């Protein structure tokens, strides 16, 4: 995003005629060790690689459909320019670097065979360089499989062209979730050309890492990528138009001042604005400079060429950095909380749908349709939310049209994910099957790799209320206790559902089966929810959860000294915490009183809302408290959304209390201790997490899960920076040890790109699970189980066998994805070291056993045969290709 679109900085340097002698004098540099002595006044022997590209904003400058056409045309222009300069001196020949593969994907789908052939030839000749990322993604928003799919297109295009893709570019975006390294490594990416915005809302990103290349190690420590941020990030050519002697003098002087120790550097050249066309002037500028100056030498290249040259010379001298590069721009996703939630659920549902296709009809898996749906998910998480004027002019057609397109990605992914689930279940009811659809039966599928005992919700349309169809029987004909909720849905707890399999339950006329004698039931009385395993107390004055007590764990797990209660609503305008407001006096009522589910609803007036409803519930036999908060958001009316009174923030407090407890935060891949596991320059005002946060001491703790809202603030409401922030020192510098979490669910703090306001009902769901000694793998299973619940569907076809497709023997390793391979011949299994410790596991398959198991990666290809136990590193991902029998 170009700052100049919003702020009149006027920061472009005009081409100037500067005497060559003055340039040479300014270029004088101290000789580097190993270079030998330099004559006084001689220029430094520096080779500077220049990487031409166009920064892809899908929107922002123009509506998305116009950007699609523009970036396809940019590829055509890039190919033509490379051909035209093929006879230029080496180093001045044009190379078009396709920043993200979305443009190449469009090109190949929209243009004719002749142009496709021209494109493939250009890639093979090195005239066009492809890069690993599909989009300039807000990686902190990604689910695990979503993050891996970000690089899937690269593996397919590498196959198509025959040219490996070993580099990824990302532009504009400052900061990247730690698992990005894992995802890149799974796709064969070795080089990460990160080039953030050069000035705005980037915290310490450039201050810490500009021209300081390093290896970034993955959460497992088993992989690494070379990271290199150039001068001014991606936007240097927004500020200058050519390699003038004045610029070269200033650039090399800046390297000297920073004690840059290398004789290879690189620069981005992204044209003269966002979504810019290829700039032919850079070839002329490089050709002229190199002809007139001995040093420094400029060389137009691909990212891979520059990084390979640098690594060959300096790779063994570079530092290895380990930790989360906590990103800065994910906070804007809270400006569209509904769609952000929708997209998270769509990603989880797609993951579950792929598992269901693996179990039910792997040969019929619609690979292309799933690929399109995953791309919708990625397009929503892409960094361009809307128009450059989205805050200053929120109502004009440019802003409104871009938001309609952006929101359609999340809506489309949601619709497709539901369709895939419906379609695969329909495959079970084919002509000739022994059993027809059974309207009184429900099939329950467990898409997880561990045995599940959990709540099953049967919508009232599948369990007729008028006929009192409340009686539930399991697959052996035994009665299962059930309950009709106040809203009409029927619920029961499915016990010990085997992994990766299904069971059939019969719903028949008659009353619900009673709970076993002496068994614990869920109840609600006097503002207290109890299920025999834990208690939660609702404060009658605030409606927050003032106490959570668990059997076997002493004390209140909510910190009474924090000044807040769990699930307390906090709202403020501007950036002054003195103006924080809470919900009004609550109306509290019991809506369900067991025996399976006990639920209390708290209705309140609340600032910024038409209404606020918080539902808190417990479930018999399950060790968690669930909260579902419906915020019916009122549109903030403001004369200016740039003014403090036009800014708002909505939060829910979760002050936890575990004596001596330490916090661990889940990421899409890996987990971090705040401050300890964040690299220098990482964002600390807010952190986008995966599914859970945990506070534990060695004996006990509590896991907090968030299903809809990814952003957390730690210890304080620190997400208070408004509009353009250009000084690194204004950002939070440290996170002190804390057990207090604030879920940051809505804001409009940006000055561009994101939404100025939002309105309408949005649900934010959370859960608290007390536990014994800390177990990250158990935390992962708990939180994943909430966002990937047991799937209930109208029974069709033969009764599910209840036999797992396979089981994972060994603790601490979870299957995070199971899908049919795109070529239709195998299953793809992703194992995740969720315990954080290296483990060895076996997969035990139900007959017929697979033909062969291979280690694989994002390519889905067989890489090396896997025979015997599988080593899974802590916080690492292992991808297997398992060839189906027959």
Mean pLDDT: 94
Domain tally: 4
- At the fold tier of CATH, the topology name of the largest domain is 7-stranded beta/alpha barrel
Radius of gyration: 29 Å
Give the strand content: 25-35%
Cα separation of the termini: 52 Å
Question: Based on CA inertia axes, which overall geometry fits?
Answer: globular
Trace the largest sheet across and list its strands. Answer: 24-25-26-27-36-33-32-29-30
Q: CATH superfamily membership of the largest domain, which one?
A: Glycoside hydrolase 38, N terminal domain
> What is the architecture of the largest domain at the second tier of CATH?
Alpha-Beta Barrel
Largest sheet: 9 strands, antiparallel
The assigned structural class equals alpha+beta
Helical content band: 10-25%
Q: Residue ranges: pLDDT <50 for 5 or more in a row?
A: 3-40
Total count of helical runs of at least 4 residues:
16
Number of strands: 45
Text of the CATH class of the largest domain: Alpha Beta
Task: Report on this structure.
With 886 residues, this protein is an alpha+beta fold. It folds into four domains: 3-322, 7-stranded beta/alpha barrel (Alpha-Beta Barrel), CATH 3.20.110.10; 438-514 and 791-795, Immunoglobulin-like (Sandwich); 525-787, Beta-galactosidase, Chain A, domain 5; 806-886, Immunoglobulin-like. The chain is 23% helix and 28% strand. It is built from 16 helices and 45 strands. The strands form ten sheets. It has a nine-stranded antiparallel beta sheet with strand order 24-25-26-27-36-33-32-29-30. Strands 23-22-28-35-34-31 form a six-stranded antiparallel beta sheet, with no helix packed on it. Strand 42 (852-856) and strand 43 (864-865) form a beta hairpin. The radius of gyration is 29 Å and the shape is globular. One of its GO terms (biological process) is mannose metabolic process. Pfam families: Glyco_hydro38C2, Glyco_hydro_38N. GO terms for molecular function: alpha-mannosidase activity; carbohydrate binding.
């Amino acid at each position: 995003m170009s700052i100049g679109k919003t702020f009149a900085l006027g920061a472009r340097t005009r081409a100037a005629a500067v005497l060559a002698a003055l340039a040479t004098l300014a270029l004088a540099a101290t000789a580097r060790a190993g270079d030998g002595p330099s004559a006084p006044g001689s220029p430094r022997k520096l080779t500077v690689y220049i990487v031409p590209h166009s920064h892809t904003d899908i929107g922002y400058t123009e509506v998305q459909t116009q950007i699609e056409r523009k970036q396809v045309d940019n590829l055509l222009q890039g190919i033509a320019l490379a051909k035209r300069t093929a006879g230029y001196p080496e180093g001045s020949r044009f190379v078009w670097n396709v920043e993200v593969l979305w443009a190449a994907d469009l090109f190949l789908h929209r243009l004719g065979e002749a142009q496709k052939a021209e494109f493939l030839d250009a890639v093979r000749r090195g005239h066009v360089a492809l890069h690993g990322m599909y989009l300039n993604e807000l990686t902190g928003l990604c689910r695990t499989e979503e993050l891996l799919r970000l690089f899937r297109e690269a593996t397919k295009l590498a196959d198509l062209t025959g040219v490996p893709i070993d580099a990824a570019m990302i532009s504009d975006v400052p900061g990247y979730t730690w698992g990005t390294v894992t995802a890149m490594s799974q796709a064969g990416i070795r080089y990460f050309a990160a080039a953030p915005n050069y000035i705005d809302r980037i915290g310490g990103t450039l201050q810490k890492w500009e021209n300081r290349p390093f290896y970034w190690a993955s959460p497992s420590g088993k992989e690494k990528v070379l990271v290199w941020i150039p001068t001014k990030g991606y936007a240097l050519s927004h500020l200058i138009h050519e390699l003038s002697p004045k610029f070269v003098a200033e650039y090399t002087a800046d390297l000297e001042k920073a004690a840059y120790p290398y004789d290879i550097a690189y620069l981005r050249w992204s044209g003269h604005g966002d979504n810019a066309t290829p700039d032919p002037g850079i070839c002329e500028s490089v050709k002229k400079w190199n002809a007139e100056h001995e040093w420094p030498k400029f060389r137009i290249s691909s990212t891979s060429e520059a990084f390979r040259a640098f690594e060959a010379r300096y790779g063994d001298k570079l530092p290895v950095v380990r930790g989360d590069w906590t990103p800065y721009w994910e906070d804007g996703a809270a400006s569209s909380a509904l769609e952000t939630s929708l997209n998270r659920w769509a990603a989880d549902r797609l993951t579950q749908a792929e598992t269901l296709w693996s179990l039910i009809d792997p040969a019929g898996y619609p690979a292309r349709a799933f690929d399109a749906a995953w791309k919708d998910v990625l397009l929503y998480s892409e960094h361009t939310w809307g128009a450059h004027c989205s805050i200053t002019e929120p109502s004009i057609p440019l802003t409104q049209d871009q938001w309609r397109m952006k929101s359609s990605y999340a809506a489309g992914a949601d619709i497709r994910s539901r369709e895939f689930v419906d379609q695969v279940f329909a495959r079970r009811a084919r002509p000739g099957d022994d059993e027809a659809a059974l309207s009184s039966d429900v099939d329950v599928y467990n898409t997880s790799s561990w045995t599940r005992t959990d709540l099953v919700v049967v919508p009232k349309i599948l369990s007729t209320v008028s006929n009192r169809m409340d009686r539930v029987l399991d697959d052996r004909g035994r009665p299962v206790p059930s309950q009709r909720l106040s809203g009409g849905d029927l619920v029961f707890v499915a016990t010990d559902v085997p992994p990766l399999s299904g069971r059939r339950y019969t719903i028949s006329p008659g009353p619900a089966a009673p709970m076993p004698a002496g068994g614990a039931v869920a109840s609600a009385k006097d503002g207290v929810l109890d299920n025999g395993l834990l208690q939660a107390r609702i404060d009658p004055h605030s409606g927050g959860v003032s106490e959570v007590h668990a059997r076997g764990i002493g004390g209140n797990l909510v910190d009474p000294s924090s000044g807040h209660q769990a699930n307390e609503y906090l709202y403020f305008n501007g950036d002054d915490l003195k103006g924080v407001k809470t919900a009004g006096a609550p109306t509290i009522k019991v809506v369900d009183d067991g025996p399976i589910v006990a639920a209390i609803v708290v209705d309140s007036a609340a600032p910024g809302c038409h209404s606020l409803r918080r539902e808190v519930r417990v479930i018999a036999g399950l060790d968690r408290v669930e909260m579902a908060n419906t915020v019916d958001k009122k549109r903030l009316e403001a004369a200016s959304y740039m003014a403090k009174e036009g800014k708002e923030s909505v939060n829910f407090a979760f002050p936890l209390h575990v004596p001596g407890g330490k916090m661990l935060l889940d990421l899409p891949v890996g987990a971090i201790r705040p401050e300890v596991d964040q690299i220098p320059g990482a964002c600390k005002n807010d952190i986008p997490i995966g599914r859970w946060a945990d506070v534990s001491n060695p004996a006990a703790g509590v896991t907090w899960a968030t299903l809809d809202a990814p952003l957390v603030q730690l210890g304080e409401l620190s997400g208070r920076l408004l509009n353009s922030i250009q000084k690194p020192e204004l950002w939070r510098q440290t996170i002190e040890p804390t057990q207090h979490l604030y879920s940051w669910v809505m804001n409009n703090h940006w000055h561009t790109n994101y939404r100025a306001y939002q309105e309408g009902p949005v649900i934010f769901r959370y859960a608290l699970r007390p536990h014994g000694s800390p177990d990250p793998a158990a935390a992962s299973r708990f939180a994943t189980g909430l966002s990937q619940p047991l799937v209930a569907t109208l029974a069709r076809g033969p009764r599910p066998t209840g036999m797992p497709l396979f089981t994972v023997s060994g603790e601490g390793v979870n299957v995070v994805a199971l899908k049919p391979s795109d070529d239709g011949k195998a299953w793809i299994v992703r194992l995740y070291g969720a315990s954080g410790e290296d483990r060895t596991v076996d997969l035990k398959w139900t007959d017929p056993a697979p033909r062969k198991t291979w280690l694989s990666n994002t390519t889905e290809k067989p890489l090396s045969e896997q025979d015997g136990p599988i080593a899974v590193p802590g916080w690492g991902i292992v991808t297997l290709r398992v060839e189906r029998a027959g």
